[in-house]
């Protein structure tokens, strides 16, 4: 059935697998996507939403690099919000509420339209490895398919075990079976594996809810979108979410089920996502809080199904039901399905290189939840990177690695492979030391030139980005070079409680003042005339505004990033042996031997490696 040798086989059609398949195929690699159920391509296992704090920036980065997640998030969106708009631009984070079914359908359509991509529905039960190199996969029907590289993106499916109260059964996700065979084989090959868990809330029938008892949460009045491409448009209509709260009565009802909870009776041992705790975890850990927020989110444009965000649980279904019926607006609730928790295998990501290729088996890449991450965006971005690097390797081209100062994706990969993770890893803005540089508004400026070099962005796209960039820069120069007289600017300053000017000065200085916005500056005739004459659009104006108002922070971070780049340039030889470096702590020697950092900078980020260990290493390397 499969006579040809593929360049890249992607195992799993979740968020990681879909991006991996798209990037590999778009880079010209003959690619096969094998997944257990082709109806469930890029299925949203948990909440029907993309983006959010730090995750929204990742989706913009994926889009700038030529991935599909941004486009599909736009085409399937039912509501758009720019979170944190009241804070500085480093914190602005786009988020959409998605139509779950349309999201999966649009993903599948986009993949079907992708050249060089074949599909096959089956479970992969093992890998074919020869001389520490992957050369194929085996399916559960016993079919062998040959390839030059494999990207594993099994998500929560490896030996997945679903828990609802005291019942548990094998499964990769509600209604889908678990995947077996792969973990056992990888462990035999020398890989270390671990166990993690995550959970999801019940889905309910919107017709049984009383929304008049909840607070409406509409989308933004002027919605934006994810993709930098003009193939998608901002929403013209939106669906609202609703906010309600738990109460002490609800908490008491939930506590009645604690003795049957797999979380508390020891049946679940593995760690779950700290920042996305179950409701039982919340009332247990924060016993003094007498209510928790619940966001009631529609699952699509036309469906009556709702997702109860904040009520993730693995308590027995009767307890879930009784407790939810005590929530305001849920008195007559009908369940579509109860919440559940799932335990699954993952592989500590310190076993990977920056390319996401495993250190043990050549040509084998891991991406997504299999690496101990949680979240669609984290998974999708790893899939994109693994697909790119698998293709580059097959094409004998240099690897593609993003640094911590270039992208959140760089931070994510570097954190995973350098520090590892013992609990599900999700991205936060606080994980990025250069977050003022890594904004959602400039992901295209940062990354589209790289996508063009990789063959994932067209020349037209690159030109468009360059035009936006140069028009914004020219507008900043205009503020630096053009003066304004006190008689013109002082009424504007007074209206904004800003100190008046006594003599003419450059507009850059005035615009940089905290309470002066572009709307104020446009009242200066020459500014308005410039915008009209240069035909600047909203994005270009916003880009220039950020460059002026945050110039101090941006320059400081650029300087720090340059210093880091210098350390990134000090390479450590491959397979460097730290064992006999007596002046270095035992812990540092052990960790450095295990992780084998590629640069001094990476070595310095390994926990347990101190600045004095780094000094010793520098001396050793003759620096
Ligand atoms: P998945 O989306 O899980 O996709 C894996 C794909 O691989 C599936 O299509 C599967 O069929 C296929 N597959 C697996 N094994 C094989 C095989 N051997 N052969 C062929 N195909 C195979 N994220 C959050 O951010 N917050 C949460 O609270 C949260 N809760 C979750 C709750 C539950 C119950 C689940 C299941 C997931 C939850 N997630 C949550 C995680 C989110 O769904 C994942 O992070 C994301 O989907 C991971 O993407 P992925 O591509 O790695 O894997």
TrEMBL record:
Protein name per Swiss-Prot or TrEMBL: tRNA uridine 5-carboxymethylaminomethyl modification enzyme MnmG
GO cellular component: cytosol
Organism for this UniProt entry: Bizionia algoritergicola
SUPFAM superfamilies with a match to the protein in the record: FAD/NAD(P)-binding domain
Domain tRNA uridine 5-carboxymethylaminomethyl modification enzyme C-terminal subdomain: 548-619
UniProt function note: NAD-binding protein involved in the addition of a carboxymethylaminomethyl (cmnm) group at the wobble position (U34) of certain tRNAs, forming tRNA-cmnm(5)s(2)U34.
Keyword field: Cytoplasm, FAD, Flavoprotein, NAD, tRNA processing
Subcellular localization(s) per the UniProt record: Cytoplasm
GO molecular-function term, one example from the UniProt record: flavin adenine dinucleotide binding
Pfam families from the UniProt entry: GIDA, GIDA_C_1st, SAM_GIDA_C
Location, primary (coarse class): cytoplasm
Cofactor(s) the protein needs: FAD
Subunit structure of this chain's protein: Homodimer. Heterotetramer of two MnmE and two MnmG subunits.
Residues annotated to bind NAD(+): 272-286
Family: Belongs to the MnmG family.
SMART domains for this protein: GIDA_assoc_3
Residues reported to bind FAD: 12-17
One biological process term in Gene Ontology: tRNA wobble uridine modification
């Amino acid at each position: 059935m499969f006579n040809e040798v593929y360049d890249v086989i992607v195992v799993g059609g979740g968020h990681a697998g879909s991006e991996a398949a798209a990037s590999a195929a778009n880079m010209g690699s003959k690619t096969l996507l094998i997944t257990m159920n082709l109806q469930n391509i890029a299925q949203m296992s948990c909440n029907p939403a993309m983006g959010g704090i730090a995750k929204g920036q990742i989706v913009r980065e994926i889009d700038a690099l030529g991935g599909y997640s941004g486009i599909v998030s736009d085409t399937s969106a039912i509501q758009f919000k720019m979170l944190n708009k009241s804070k500085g631009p480093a914190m602005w984070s786009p988020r959409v509420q998605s139509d779950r079914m349309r999201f999966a359908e649009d993903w599948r359509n986009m993949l079907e339209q992708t050249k060089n991509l074949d599909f096959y529905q089956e479970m992969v039960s093992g890998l074919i490895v020869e001389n520490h190199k992957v050369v194929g996969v085996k399916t559960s029907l016993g079919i062998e398919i040959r390839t030059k590289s494999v990207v594993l993106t099994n998500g929560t499916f490896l030996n997945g075990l679903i828990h609802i109260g005291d019942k548990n059964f094998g499964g990769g996700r509600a209604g889908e079976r678990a995947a077996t065979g792969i973990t056992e084989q990888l462990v035999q090959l020398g890989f270390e594996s671990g166990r993690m868990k995550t959970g999801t809330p019940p889905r309910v029938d919107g017709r049984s809810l009383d929304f008049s008892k909840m607070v409406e949460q509409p989308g933004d009045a002027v919605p934006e979108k994810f993709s930098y491409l003009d193939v998608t448009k901002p929403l013209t209509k939106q669906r609202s979410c609703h906010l309600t709260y738990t109460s002490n009565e609800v908490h008491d009802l939930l506590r009645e089920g604690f003795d049957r909870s797999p979380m508390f009776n020891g049946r679940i041992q593995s760690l779950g996502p700290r920042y996305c705790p179950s409701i039982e975890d919340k009332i247990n850990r924060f016993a003094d809080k007498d209510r928790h927020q619940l966001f009631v989110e529609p699952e699509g444009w036309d469906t009556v199904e709702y997702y109860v965000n904040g009520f993730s649980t693995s308590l027995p279904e009767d307890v879930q039901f009784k407790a939810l019926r005590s929530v305001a607006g849920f008195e007559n609730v009908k369940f579509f399905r109860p919440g559940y928790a799932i335990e699954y295998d993952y592989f500590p990501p310190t076993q990977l290189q920056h390319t996401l290729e495993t250190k043990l088996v050549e040509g084998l890449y891991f991406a997504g939840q299999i690496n101990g991450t949680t979240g669609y965006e984290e998974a999708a971005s790893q899939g994109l990177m693994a697909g790119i690097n698998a293709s580059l390797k097959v094409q004998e081209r240099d690897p593609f690695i993003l640094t911590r100062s270039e992208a959140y994706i760089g931070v994510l990969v570097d954190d995973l492979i350098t520090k590892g993770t013992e609990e599900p890893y999700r991205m936060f803005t606080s994980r990025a030391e250069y977050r003022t540089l890594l904004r959602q508004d400039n992901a295209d400026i940062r990354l589209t030139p790289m996508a063009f070099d990789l063959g994932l962005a067209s020349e037209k796209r690159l030109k468009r980005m360059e035009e936006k960039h140069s028009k914004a820069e020219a507008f900043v120069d205009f503020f630096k070079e053009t003066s304004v007289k006190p008689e013109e600017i002082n009424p504007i300053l007074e209206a904004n409680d800003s100190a008046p000017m006594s003599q003419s000065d450059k507009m850059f200085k005035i615009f940089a003042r905290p309470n002066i916005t572009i709307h104020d500056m446009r009242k200066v005739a020459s500014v308005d005339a410039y915008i009209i004459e240069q035909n600047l659009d909203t994005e270009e104006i916003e880009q220039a505004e950020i460059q002026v108002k945050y110039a101090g922070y941006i320059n400081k971070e650029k300087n720090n990033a340059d210093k880091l780049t210098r350390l990134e340039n000090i390479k450590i030889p491959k397979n460097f042996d730290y064992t006999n470096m007596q002046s270095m702590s035992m812990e540092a020697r052990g960790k450095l031997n295990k992780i084998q950092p590629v640069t001094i900078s990476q070595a310095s980020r390994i926990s347990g490696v101190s600045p004095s260990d780094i000094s010793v290493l520098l001396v050793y390397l003759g620096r």
